[in-house]
């Protein structure tokens, strides 16, 4: 997985926070509208607090998220991961997030509230800049390399899309790799 090509990992997560209670926490969270390139805006976002893991909604999702991330790391030969930043974004009508990349080495998106009428995350692949769309559904956990150019297309519907995003570093400490290959 993940070697030299775009991959996505769907995990039907047990994030242990029901959608309604998580949305309630997000609605009560400190957040603000964020303008980005191309005159686009994110309706509500707490990226400015992304490194503060004491936020109530973050404390609520971490117990369910951590095992998923550890499984992911293990599945591609890493012994662990480091969560560096986590934030939420809400997209009301006419909002979007133009093409961008992230820091760290992997990026995650958890689709908290994802009505069919709202757009899926898109990404760019290949030398001809082919535009592709992730085949994601509500409650999917999507992971991709942070260098992947992606965007949240403008939400034309009157319904709101809510996602949690995060940046992780996978740590390379395979216990027995040295013994296995250094001879
Ligand atoms: Fe992003």
Structural account:
The chain is an alpha+beta fold. The protein has one domain: q2cbj1_9rhob like domain (Jelly Rolls). Helices cover 19% and strands 34% of the residues. It has three helices and ten strands. It has a six-stranded antiparallel beta sheet with strand order 1-2-3-10-5-8. A four-stranded antiparallel beta sheet has the order 4-9-6-7, with no helix packed on it. A hairpin with a 3-residue loop joins strand 1 and strand 2. The chain is globular, with a radius of gyration of 17 Å. Fe (ii) ion binds next to loops.
What is the fold's blueprint, element by element?
Blueprint: H1 19-28, E1 32-36, E2 40-45, H2 56-75, E3 80-91, E4 97-100, E5 106-113, E6 122-125, E7 130-133, E8 141-145, E9 150-152, E10 161-171, H3 177-181
Antiparallel strand pairs: 1-2, 2-3, 3-10, 4-9, 5-8, 5-10, 6-7, 6-9
The structure holds fe (ii) ion.
Fe (ii) ion is lined by residues 100, 102, 150, 165.
Oligomer: single chain
In round numbers, the mean pLDDT is 88
Which sheet architecture does the biggest sheet show?
6 strands, antiparallel
Small-molecule binders:
fe (ii) ion
Strand order of the largest sheet: 1-2-3-10-5-8
Radius of gyration, in Å, reads 17 Å
Q: Give the CA-based shape.
A: globular
* SSE run: HEEHEEEEEEEEH
Q: Tally the beta strands.
A: 10
User: What is the terminal separation in angstroms?
Assistant: 26 Å
Give the strand content.
Answer: 25-35%
Q: Pick out the low-confidence regions.
A: none
Q: What class would the helix/strand composition place it in? A: alpha+beta
- What count of helical segments does DSSP give? 3
The domain count comes to: 1
The CATH homologous superfamily name equals q2cbj1_9rhob like domain
* CATH hierarchy class name: Mainly Beta
User: Per CATH, which architecture?
Assistant: Sandwich
The CATH topology: Jelly Rolls
């Amino acid at each position: 997985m993940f070697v030299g090509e775009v991959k996505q990992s769907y995990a039907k997560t047990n994030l242990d926070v029901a959608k309604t209670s998580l949305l309630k926490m997000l609605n009560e969270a400190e957040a603000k509208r964020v303008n980005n390139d191309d005159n686009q805006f994110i309706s509500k976002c707490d990226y400015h607090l992304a490194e503060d893991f004491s936020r109530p909604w973050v404390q609520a999702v971490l117990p369910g998220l951590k095992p998923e991330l550890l499984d992911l790391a293990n599945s591609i030969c890493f012994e662990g991961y480091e969560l560096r930043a986590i934030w939420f974004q809400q997209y009301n009508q006419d909002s979007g997030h133009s093409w961008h990349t992230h820091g760290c080495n992997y990026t995650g998106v958890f689709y908290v509230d994802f009505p069919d009428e709202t757009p899926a995350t898109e990404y760019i692949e290949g030398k001809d800049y082919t535009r592709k769309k992730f085949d994601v559904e509500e409650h999917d956990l999507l992971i991709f390399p942070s260098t992947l150019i992606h965007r949240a297309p403008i939400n034309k519907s009157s319904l709101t899309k809510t996602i949690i995003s995060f940046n992780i570093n996978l740590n390379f400490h395979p216990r027995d790799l040295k013994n296995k290959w250094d001879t």
